[in-house]
Amino acid sequence: MNHMLTNQELFHFCEQFSIILRSGISGAEGLHILYDDSKSQRSREIFESLIKSQEETGSLSQALTDAGIFPDSMISYVKAGEETGCLDEVMASLADHYEQEMEISQSIRSAVTYPLIMLGMMGAVIIILLVKVLPVFQQVFRQMGLEMTGLSSGLLKTGSAISRYSAVFFTVLAVLILCIIFLCCTEKGREMLGRFAARIPQIRDIPVAMDYGRLTQAMSMGLRSGLGPETSLELADHLISHPLIKSRLVKAQKLLNEGALFADAMTESGLFQGMDARLISISVRAGAADEVMGKLSDRYRQESISIVERTISVVEPTIVILLSVLVGLVLLSVMMPLLGILSDMIV
């Protein structure tokens, strides 16, 4: 029970718990129901721990904290829901949040998977050509009393080095795969990947759009759950990782503490600008801030997916072209001398 729950597991927990609370069942009894409905040993251990802590402290948020596998952001929202008596709304909003996180992660994963598979397959083809095919052509040349020269000789030496140091090659490959897994599957790795992505012009807008999607979703979630704008903004801080947005968020919170109006704090801090700031200002006065924030969240998340798709649409053909050129060079480096020999023999 040491590793954190996935977005999918958090979604199912929040969705089921919100249904239980809306049915008029208490949180303590709801945990017992979820325990009885658990299929795996791990799930039963988790709910057993939650039930024990809930009975001792009388607080679901404290039980989640003691379990050590729930994110701090979720615990903060649950605590706020307990204090305001809107825990059922908070749980339903959290379920929507984690469902959107699942959808955007799946969209990005689907967009990136095909180019990576294609890159791996083309790389394997090139290695096979260097290690297996070129030595065959070398034997043909030697039977004709010739030796490979120039580019073909350099490629042959590269293939020989790969074959000779195959253990080192596969070790490096394994390290690269582990690095990719670390960057994609761990919180610290994703933070490092985000900082690196922020320096690349083509993709640096992706983490910004994703964090703005989380921010507006968190605001919508808090407002819809009966929390005030200031409390919703404070809780949203737990979901943000981009340093620029976090700095603007801190500035907005400072302005609010100094007595500034919510709409003015959003604009003066630079957290929202232009049309978005205007929409938020109007929605707060009209009492429809949660709906507008939800729509902004959908737009930001769709924008992040669109940026990924546009980037992939450029990267994918580029990979194909580069690897095709490499394969062509490998083949031409040995075929052209052979064609020259054959033409001399015909003449």
Outline the structure in words.
There is one protein chain. This protein is mainly α. Helix content is 83%, strand content 0%. The protein contains 15 helices and no strands. The chain has helices at 7-22, 27-36, 41-57, 60-67, 72-84, 87-143, 150-164, 166-185, 187-197, 205-224, 229-236, 243-257, 262-268, 274-286, 289-346. The longest helix is centred in the C-terminal third of the chain and has 58 residues, at 289-346. The termini are far apart. The model has no long low-confidence stretch (mean pLDDT 79).
The structure class reads: mainly alpha
From the spread of the alpha carbons, the general shape counts as: elongated
Q: Which runs of at least 5 residues are low in confidence (pLDDT < 50)?
A: none
Q: How would you sum up the major sheet?
A: none
Please provide the count of β strands: 0
Quick recap of the structure?
The chain is 83% helix and 0% strand. With 347 residues, it is mainly alpha-helical.
SSE blueprint and pairings:
Elements: H1 7-22, H2 27-36, H3 41-57, H4 60-67, H5 72-84, H6 87-143, H7 150-164, H8 166-185, H9 187-197, H10 205-224, H11 229-236, H12 243-257, H13 262-268, H14 274-286, H15 289-346
Helix pairs in contact: 1-2, 1-6, 2-3, 3-4, 4-5, 5-6, 6-7, 6-10, 6-15, 8-9, 10-11, 10-15, 12-13, 13-14, 14-15
